[in-house]
Amino acid sequence: GAVVSQHPSWVICKSGTSVKIECRSLDFQATTMFWYRQFPKQSLMLMATSNEGSKATYEQGVEKDKFLINHASLTLSTLTVTSAHPEDSSFYICSARGSGRTFSLYGYTFGSGTRLTVV
Amino acid sequence: ELKVEQNPLFLSMQEGKNYTIYCNYSTTSDRLYWYRQDPGKSLESLFVLLSNGAVKQEGRLMASLDTKARLSTLHITAAVHDLSATYFCAVVSDGQNFVFGPGTRLSVLP
Question: Is the dihedral of CA B49, B61, A2, B27 positive or negative?
Answer without folding.
Answer: positive
